[in-house]
Amino acid sequence: MILVGGENLIDFVQTDTPDGAALYQAIPGGSCYNCAIATARQGQDVTYMTPVSEDALGAMLEARLAQDNIALAAQRVSQPTSLAVVSLADGIPSYQFYREGTAERQISYQQLIETCPAKATAFHIGSLALITGADAQAWEAFFESCAEKGMMTCLDPNARPGLIANKAEYVERVLRLLGSATLVKLSDEDLAYLLPELPLLEAFEKIRALSNAALLVLTMGQKGAIGATAQHKIAVPAGVASPLADTVGAGDTFMGTLIAQITKNGWDTHKALSSLSPENLQSLLEVAATAAALNCERAGCNPPYLEELHL
Questions:
Q1: Are 143 and 126 in contact (CB under 8 A)?
Q2: Which domains are present in the chain?
Q3: What is the spatial distance between Cα 39 and Cα 99, in angstroms, rounded to a whole number?
Q4: What is the pLDDT along the chain (311 residues), one digit of tens a residue?
Q5: Buried (b) or exposed (e) across 180-209, using 16+ Cβ within 10 A?
Q6: How far apart are CA 219 and CA 61, in angstroms?
């Protein structure tokens, strides 16, 4: 069983601009929530750890999880659903978030321990959940406890600089988590924020030296991706989205595919993942790139199902 924590919210995604007035469609989302769906759609048993609101938008979020047989670990709560407004320029999203006092922030370490299924084998966290507050501290502590149990721990910072008031606190948390993560995915934008003084590939190598991850992956949009273990480093081109709708959820789909394929192939231990052959590492990255491209052919985050990947 794969556990996923982190934010759930409703994306109000721009769909059109008739007469100069933008129209928005309400789509269930959130980076970690999207990753849970991407993982489940590739045949994995997924449990989502974060509380969902009892309001109407929370009902939308729960219904979408149920469609892909994702179990809820936490009881639904009375606080409102978080919101994100996603505006598009040439298919590239920009985000505004509203999540103070919302349902997905109602987290404690004790609650996570009590609701953690005994058969869990992996845990993923990242994005908004790690920014600040008691909930970020709880997620960090739970991540560390999962690592101590020998579970595969998966980290995708997916940094949102516009929401980070205390950069030093956030960067320190991410760097601490790197020490106990099995699988780490960062984007070129993440590295530009975390290590702005270094060129991209030098920043990647510095993170590689700081991290204890069995597999470290760098995604670079249209420039493709790089995956590195202790023994090998492989670069693959980006998948081709034809036609391109938008890039919302592309990184989440890439990460969910990594988790799903690693689990499916029995590579979900530090030893197995760090010992991947160059051929298996290349294949893993290519499947993730293909899945991300298929997602980009659809509006919003809508990851592909396993049969769409033609494996």
A1: no
A2: 2-15+24-309 (3.40.1190.20)
A3: 25
A4: 999 999 999 988 788 777 778 888 888 999 999 999 999 999 999 999 999 999 999 999 999 999 999 999 999 999 999 998 888 777 777 878 899 999 999 999 999 999 999 999 999 999 999 999 999 999 999 999 999 999 999 999 999 998 999 999 999 999 999 999 999 999 999 999 999 999 999 999 999 999 999 999 999 999 999 999 999 999 999 999 999 988 889 999 999 999 999 999 999 999 999 999 999 999 999 999 999 999 999 888 899 999 999 87
A5: bbbbbbbbbbbbebbbeeeeeeebbeebbe
A6: 27
d(CA 108, CA 139): 8
| Cβ–Cβ < 8 Å for 90, 221 | no
Handedness of CA 227, 94, 126, 211 (dihedral sign): positive
Evaluate whether 204 touches 174 at the Cβ level (below 8 Å): no
According to DSSP, the residues that pair with 71 across neighbouring strands are 47
